[in-house]
Design brief:
This protein is of the alpha/beta class. Helices cover 31% and strands 27% of the residues. The protein folds into 2 domains: 9-327, 3-Layer(aba) Sandwich (Rossmann fold), CATH 3.40.50; 331-427, ANL, C-terminal domain (GMP Synthetase, Chain A, domain 3), CATH 3.30.300. A hairpin with a 5-residue loop joins strand 17 (354-363) and strand 18. Helix 5 (102-113) packs across helix 7 and helix 9 packs parallel to helix 10. It is globular, with a radius of gyration of 22 Å.
């Protein structure tokens, strides 16, 4: 293995100290950093006061650049070293295409692959992967990393290339033990199975790995119930790789701290916060970044850092964990009311007859902001009653008016299948 598991947290500390220096010296080669790091003593990077002098990078900085400018400002690798490009997977803003060297890809495979043994997945398991196999890394890196870690993989791809009904048939035929999918698509497969009188709790799938979009508590519970499977969440980003995943207690994400230097910082000062306090997550890749060397990357996640969780086993002993609060972009505001995406999602998915939903913000003909909630309802239910009850509950709970529209089952899945992340909240206001 290119990078075996460390033997102790002390060893991880030594790795971090050495690799921060490497990452720092590499970043100094990028145009964007020129003049921004000259005052920093490279021999004192383990001193928090020194490290915090490094400027934080966020998505707003990158969104102001087109691809040519981004490559000019950040890419330090010659074209002969570029193995592939990874597309950022966010639902907002202009996508960024990150060049990755052959070494970046090798280490990237490890970041994904470590999730398998951490979740008790190994020899004899077969994973059914329902992600696009393309320029966004999730699908192809999951599949390729499985080979490194001795895990079987069915390269199925996304629902827009392999229809959902075909995917259900493959699950019944090939009998995979693990489903790797966006939670939204896993829910869609469950809804489709119910329509066909297929009991997924009796299928071969006993574990689900969710990735690429937030996993709310209500969504997790619904997946566990409909599939009869243990649901795991992982945490990653195109800018870094797969940074970690859940352990047996499902109480947060264990972070591969020998591969990423993690800070939780005060959003105002950029200074590190002590364990347990909420702040912005900043990460510095320690082994990747040969093409685009980022230091202190802030993706907008609000988290708490904990030295230990409730999980047991080797991974829990070695690696600290983070627990998510939400993303800074995970809100919508309508008529002066702020609504948290995660809270709204938990609320809607907590209504058992609702299979799936999409919230759309529009401006009507009278120039008024309007929320339309499009839902799919399981068969046999009174659609009008559920729509009326949901609209009334939204008014009571969130103090906003809404229009609820019931869609034909499968409509939302067809919309979501072509996206890396399901566009569950859409702002179409003029």
């Amino acid at each position: 293995m290119l990078l075996p598991l460390p033997k102790s947290r002390d060893e991880i500390g030594n790795i971090q100290s050495e690799r921060k220096r490497v990452a720092f010296e590499r970043a100094k080669q990028a145009k964007w950093y020129q003049g921004k790091l000259d005052h920093i003593d490279a021999d004192r990077l383990d001193d928090p006061e020194v490290w915090q002098q490094i400027p934080i990078i966020n998505k707003d900085i990158l969104r102001r650049m087109d691809h040519a400018e981004f490559m000019d400002q950040f890419c330090i690798a010659p074209k002969s070293d570029i193995a592939e490009y990874w597309r950022s997977g966010g639902t907002t803003g202009t996508p960024v295409f990150y060049p990755r060297t052959f070494k970046d890809v090798d280490y990237g495979l490890i970041t994904w692959g470590r999730s398998f043994p951490a979740m008790g997945i190994g020899a004899g398991d077969l994973c059914h992967i329902s992600f696009p196999i393309g320029v966004h890394p999730a699908g192809q890196i999951w599949a390729r990393s499985a080979h490194l870690f001795g895990v079987g993989m069915a390269w199925v791809g996304a629902g827009n290339s392999v229809p959902s009904a075909v995917q259900l048939g493959l699950i019944q035929t090939l009998e995979p033990t693990v489903l790797i999918s966006m939670p939204s698509f896993a829910l869609h497969l469950a809804n489709l199975a119910a329509e066909q009188d297929i009991d997924l709790t009796q299928s071969s799938v006993n574990k689900i790995i969710c990735s690429a979009e937030p996993l709310s508590d209500a969504k997790r519970e619904k997946l566990a119930r409909t599939w009869g499977a243990e649901v795991f969440n992982v945490f990653g980003m195109s800018e870094a790789g797969l940074m970690g995943g859940e352990g047996t207690a499902h109480d947060g994400m264990h972070i591969w701290s020998d591969m990423f230097f993690i800070e939780v910082v005060d959003p105002e000062t950029g200074n590190m916060l002590p364990p347990g306090e909420e702040g912005h997550l900043c990460q510095t890749p320690l082994w990747t970044g040969h093409a685009t060397p980022f230091l202190r990357w802030n993706a907008g996640d609000i988290v708490r850092y904990l030295e230990h969780g409730e999980s047991d086993g080797q991974f829990a002993d070695l690696f600290p964990m983070i627990r998510h609060a939400n993303r800074t972009t995970g809100f919508f505001k309508i008529r002066g009311v702020n609504v948290n995406h995660a809270e709204f999602e938990d609320f809607v998915f907590g209504i058992e007859p609702v299979n799936d939903f999409q919230a759309v913000l529009v401006t009507d003909d009278d120039d008024l902001e309007t929320l339309t909630v499009k839902i799919e309802v399981r068969r046999g239910e009174n659609n009008d009653r559920i729509a009326d009850d949901l609209s009334a509950s939204i008014k009571t709970t969130f103090e906003i008016s809404s229009r609820v529209e019931v869609l034909e089952i499968g409509t939302l899945a067809r919309r979501f299948e072509s996206s890396i992340k399901a566009p569950r909240f859409v702002d179409e206001r003029s």
